[in-house]
Design brief:
Helix content is about 50%, strand content about 10%. With about 475 residues, the chain is of the alpha/beta class. A five-stranded parallel beta sheet has the order 2-1-3-4-5, with helices on both faces. It has a five-stranded parallel beta sheet with strand order 7-10-13-6-14.
């Protein structure tokens, strides 16, 4: 069971002895004479296990483990020539795999190491299986389009080839990328995502490649970039179509050589990363318009996978609704309300410009706002029309993230736009209430009494909510 091993011991003869013994067994070995040097190696070249002496200059070995935090380091085998029961207990409590007394018995040492690596491998495998099962649970649907997508993932995942994942917003491109990673030989290694559209142009290179201390104003310490963080694993370049041409050129060179230099650095750093890219843009059109490099396109699009929009697989909607009902119940602790067959039919007739993300928001909104035990087609229709009219009112896109939803200066943290990625459950509830109240007010010409009746609430309660959210309407008597 070969692997990379780190030895941290202040005695040079012990380091040399262990290095020779372990290398004879086929292990790659790094050595350090202090906890501080060991920490740097752990960060830069994470081992599969490490031996750690208790008596070290500066920080002692057990304090070093405590500084890392339980569960935040690979299998640690602690060594000491002055062992005590208290010391052994302290080391195992913080997460050490075993405690060996000096002078070391080579046979016991190698047996302990093999056991530590075997346990570590099992833990990583279990974690990978749990992640894979979680991803599989999210891949909902048995339509022809979904079966084809699963087949493409199954073919692409085992290979080292770079994959370009395309599709409209809200279709689940990141979920596809995670499925490819989890089903690949790199499934136990890191999965790192970079949103190329969300990072300012002048920071994207630092985000990808990292930077050295003092590389630019504000660089107060060294930063490891996303590519290095993904070493031995998978890097997802999300919304790569929004990357600047200058950054595209630098990324191309890095992908061609599998080497990088941090911003402000001179050291060349090799890496082993599988790159996946995702975009909602048609990159061939971007190339024709001069906004995307053709040579980079051919580097990242070895295997293209297109994620189908929801409107092309409406037969999956019933299963997706049930999935989102269960998720709502788990997150809120409330019993989910079922959708009637007519309600499902109404959902299936919608064109879903916001795709699965929009469907999830609609299901969640109805679970929160419906006053009935079973959600009917009329309620579904009203929510869909409200969401579309809200988007049309501002010229924005239709839900799920209704950019034009009402904003209130009194409650800036409770906008009407349901951002399920960044906002709390309570904020989303408030956002849905704002949208529903304003839409119903508009429908009834600003008449609060009629609006209250339509919402099945009393006028006093409606007035309180309008005051809370800063909603104003001229009541017609």
């Amino acid at each position: 069971m070969p692997g990379r091993i780190l030895v941290i011991d202040d005695e040079e003869n012990i380091r040399k002895m262990l290095q020779g013994l372990l290398e004879d067994e086929g292990y790659d070995v790094d050595v350090a004479g202090s906890a501080e040097d060991g920490a740097a190696i752990l960060k830069e070249n994470a081992p599969d296990a490490f031996f750690l002496d208790v008596q070290l200059p500066g920080m002692d070995g057990v304090s070093f483990l405590e500084s890392l935090g339980a569960g935040n380091f690979p299998a640690a085998i602690v060594m000491s020539g002055h062992a005590t029961i208290d010391m052994a207990v302290r080391a195992t409590r913080v997460g050490a795999f075993d405690f060996l007394e000096k002078p070391l018995d080579p046979e016991r040492l190698l047996l302990t190491l093999r056991n530590a690596l075997r346990v570590g491998a099992l833990e990583r495998e279990n974690a990978a299986l749990r992640r894979a099962a979680s991803v599989a649970r999210e891949m909902i649907g048995n339509s022809a389009a979904m079966r084809k997508l699963r087949e493409e993932i199954a073919y692409a995942a085992p290979s080292p080839a770079r994959v370009l994942i395309t599709g409209e917003n809200g279709t689940g491109k990141e979920l596809v990328a995670r499925a490819i990673h989890e089903e690949s030989p790199r499934g136990r290694a890191p999965f790192i995502k970079v949103n190329c559209a969300a990072i300012p142009k002048d920071l994207i290179e630092s985000e990808l490649f990292g930077h050295e201390k003092g590389a630019f104003t504000g660089a107060s310490q060294q930063r490891i970039g996303k590519i290095e963080q993904a070493d031995r694993g998978t890097l997802l370049l999300d919304e790569i179509g929004d990357m600047s041409l200058e950054t595209q050129a630098k990324l191309l060179r890095v992908l061609e050589t599998n080497e990088l230099e941090r911003v402000g650095g001179k050291k060349t750093i090799a890496f082993d990363v599988r790159v996946l890219a995702a975009t909602n843009k048609v990159l061939t059109d971007e190339i024709a318009a001069g906004r995307f490099r053709e040579d980079l396109y051919y580097r990242i699009a070895v295997v293209p996978i297109d994620v189908p929009p929801l409107r092309s697989r409406t037969e999956d909607i019933a299963a997706l609704v049930l999935h989102f009902e269960r998720r709502f119940s788990e997150e809120s602790g409330r019993l989910a309300k079922p959708f009637s067959p007519d309600a499902i039919a109404r959902l299936e007739s919608h064109d879903w410009p916001g795709n699965i993300r929009e469907l999830r928001n609609v299901v969640e909104r109805l679970q929160i706002m419906s006053r009935r035990d079973t959600i009917g087609a009329g309620e579904v229709h009203e929510v869909l029309v409200t969401a579309r009219s809200g988007a049309a009112h501002t010229g924005g896109a239709t839900a799920p993230q209704t950019k034009g939803a009402p904003q209130t200066p009194q409650t800036p943290q409770s906008p009407g736009s349901p951002d399920t990625g960044a906002r709390s459950f309570r904020e989303r509830v408030e956002g849905f209430e704002i949208e529903l109240i304003e839409a119903t007010l508009r429908k009834h010409g600003g008449n609060v009494a009629e609006t209250a009746r339509a919402l099945d609430t009393d006028r006093a309660n409606l007035h309180r909510k309008m005051k809370r959210y800063g909603i104003q309407a001229k009541e017609k008597n």
